[in-house]
Amino acid sequence: MRAARLHSIGGTLQLDEVPDPQPGPGEQLVELAYASVNPLDVWITQGSIGAAASHLPWTPGSEATGYIDGRPVLVRGGGLGVVRPGVYCSRIAVPEDWLIPLDSRLDLAQVAATPVAGITAWQALHGRAHVQPEDRVLVLGASGGVGAMAVQLAKIAGATVWGHTGSPAKADGIIANGADNVVVGSAGALESEIESFQPTVILDALGGPYTDAAIAGIAPKGRLVVYGTSNDERVSINLRRLYRKGVTLLGYSGLVDTPEEQRESLDTMLAMMATGALHVPVGEVLPLSAAADAHARILARGVEGKIVLDCQKQPEMWPKKIEG
Questions:
Q1: Domain residue ranges of the chain, discontinuous segments joined by +
Q2: Of 291, 292, 287, nearest to 311 (Cα)?
Q3: CA–CA separation, 155 vs 177, rounded Å?
Q4: pLDDT band at 315 (very low <50, low <70, confident <90, very high)
């Protein structure tokens, strides 16, 4: 079978031919269809986290969809792609409790892109901010995978939603995704741009100067949920402004969720997707052979929505390297 693997930390993923996996007791062999590409995968290949450095060559990827005897399933859990080889491959053997049966109406590319981004957006909105229909929600970085999901989920909750992006080229996509308005610009302009909106909830995946700008622009008694630092993890904030406005500063990471919390939110979103109420924006579907290109696009911040890899599409040319 084929697998996109890392042979050196910080190196480029390459497509290898490797032996088929052999299911052990209690495991199922899954013919993979689509694998989601997440920033987490990129950090792992750079050696920031995970077990890749001591287990080269390494297959990234934490979530995918596929088939068992023609039945569609979602594959996730157990540290896939983090502490054990992941799903950037054409087949995988995993324990049965890492499999979620899927409604046949679901688009498997969209489902593959849902767990990490969707659960983050859901928990930021509902688990932390407890968003209500009367809320005015601002989503920073609204063109990304989590941001695009957050815009839709906030709208489904009945809130008024504005999206933010640093790129004018991405504004139309944010509006098409359901935002009522789009703010385009840097952190320096954010406070003035949202002055008329007075958001009661801000979702911040950026950090750096954006966090203090969010505190400056948020409504009194507003809730600021930080779930990422793609701009900068180093943040300087005006504490006097924060406490005088009564702002609640909240953090979210999937690391603090229970499995039950994650499964409940995921099941809710899958049900929405089956009825067409929720659409996961998949920006690109690339062949498995283009996994390195997918990582490069994430690093360059040139992605709208999510990237997924087609685990079965045959590339025109790829280096055949047989390894045990």
A1: 2-113+281-310, 116-255
A2: 287
A3: 10
A4: low
CATH code of domain 2-113+281-310: 3.90.180.10
Tens-place pLDDT, residues 47-87? 888 889 899 999 999 999 999 999 999 999 889 999 999 99
pTM over 0.90: yes
Neighbours of 243 (CB within 10 A): 9
CA dist 115 and 20 (Å) reads: 26
Interior CA angle at 246 toward 242 and 249, to 5°? 60
Architecture of domain 116-255: 3-Layer(aba) Sandwich (3.40)
The 10s digit of each residue's pLDDT in 267-311 is 999 999 999 999 998 989 999 999 999 999 998 877 788 999 999
Q: Which residues are registered as beta bridge partners of 204?
A: 226
d(CA 150, CA 131): 11
Question: Among 36, 232, 62, 276, which Cα is nearest to 140's?
Answer: 232
Cis before 85 (ω within 30): no
